[in-house]
Specification:
With 184 residues, the chain is of the alpha/beta class. It has one domain: Mannose-Binding Protein A, Chain A, CATH 3.10.100.10. It contains five helices and seven strands; from the N terminus they run H-E-H-E-H-E-E-H-E-H-E-E. Strands 1, 2, 3, 4, 5, 6 and 7 form a seven-stranded mixed sheet that branches. A hairpin with a 4-residue loop joins strand 3 (89-91) and strand 4. The chain starts with a helix and ends with a strand. The relative contact order is 0.24.
Amino acid sequence: MKPLLLLAMAGLLACNDSGTDSGMDSGISQRRIFVTDTIQNGNFGGTAGADELCASQAAAARLQGEFKAWLSTISSPVSGRLTQSSVPYVLVDGTLIANDWNDLVDGSIFAPINLDANQQVRSGDVWTGTLPDGLPYMNDDCEGFTSDSAGIALCGTTASMNANWTANATPPCSTELRLYCIEQ
């Protein structure tokens, strides 16, 4: 078990926020993660369309807050699009996924990300375009996730707790997969 997890579980971990996102976690004790309940091919209007899908599903489930997709394009890495939080990332039921951003991008997570915004179990692959360290997969990205016919893109899997959660395979852009959504 990771040392920070033990401290957090014992209620002994104080949250100091002096990193690059200083102030962004003020008043926030955790950031929620879910997987979409719908599947779509690689053409969902780039990162903006993916973010809109996450926001829509969060709103439909009455989740407060801003949600964005865990999705990188070659020109827009997730590490530059999402809040790099110093608080834990959890599923919508409270299950711990990672202690903080650095833990999220260290190659393993504590539990599979397999619950949708309504806490229903969902399985399968997930469009990510993102390597385990939060940087983009540089070989192809379905033309910035705006094409369902050209190329391939990186996907993860909801069944994994190792690096495969975000970097598992490179299916054709016509494949219908889910997205991960993370509270900002």
